[in-house]
Give the backbone structure.
Amino acid sequence: MGYLQVFTNAIVVALMAMYVYENQRRTGDVLARLDRIEKELGIDIFSESKERKKIHMIYDLIEDMQKLMSTRAGKEELNKVQNQQKADIRKLVEIEDYQIAGTRKLADIENQQIKNNDKGVTYIRWGKTQCDGLNTETIYSGQVGGGHYTHSGASVNYICLPNHPDVAQPLKSHDYYGYLYGSEYEVYDFNKPQGIRSGIAQHDVACAACLAKGKISSIMIPGRKTCYNGWTKEYEGILMAGYHSHAAASEFACVDRDTEAMAGGSNNENGKLFYPVKTVCGSLKCPPYAADTEVLCVVCSK
Ligand SMILES: [Ca+2]
C-alpha cells in the first residue's frame, strides 16, 4: 500500500470518527422530526425523496462506525492506522530532505561544469593568426620567434610572441646574451608540400595561442591528419623544422597547412626558419611510412 493511500485512509477514518460523534444526535433528531411531521400530517411526504434516503444511508453508516469504534479490534485498527500515518509522515520528511540535498548537489555540479567550461588546455597553433577549433578561443595572436639558424648555440624551440608585448627596458651594449629573432617560411615551389600556398618563402611566420575550453589534454600527432577516437581535432597541418645541416638545432612544429604570415614581413631577414620535413626510411619504418614524403600532423584535444 502506497504512502499516499495509507495517508488518505487515515484521514477518512479520522473524519468519519469526527462525523460519528458530532452528527449522531443531530441526524437522529432530524429523522425523529421527519417521522413526527409525517404522523401529524398523516402523509408520507419524504418516503420517496432522495434526501431521506441519503439521511438514512448516513445514519446507517454512522451506526456501523459506532459499532466498529466501540470494539477493541476497531480501536486497535485505528491506532495501527494512526501509527502508520506517523511513520509515513516521518518517511515523507526524510524523502523531502533527500530531495533538497540532491537538488543542492545538482546545483553544485552544474556550477562546477560552468566553471570547467571556462577552463581548458592551451596549445600553440603555428602558421595561423587565430584559433578555430570547436569551443576554442584565441588567447592571443603573435609572430614566431627563435634563435638564429646560423648560431650553434641558438635556442632550439619556436616561441609564439604576442603582438602586444609589454614595455621592456633596454640592455647594455654587449653580446653576452641569448638572441631572439623572428622567423620565416623557407617554403619554395621546389620544396612545397601540396596544399601549402605559393609565395610564402621569406614571409614571417604567424602563430596563435589557443585555449580549448572544457578540455584537459592536447596532443600533437605527427604522421596523421585525423585524431583518434574520443579526441577533437583542433587543426591539421604539415610538420616543419629547421634545415637539416644548419648550425642551429631546431624542433618539429605542426604548421597549419593554410599558412598565414605577418603583414609586411616578406623581406628575407632570416632568423628562426621553417622547412617542410621529409621522411628518410631506414630506422624510420617504411611501411607504415613511405620514403621521401611530407609528414602530416594534427593537434587534438580531449
Ligand atoms: Ca621575412
The first strand starts at residue 120 and ends at 126. The pocket of calcium ion is lined by residues 184, 202-204, 265-269 (CB under 6 Å). Residues 3-116 form one domain.
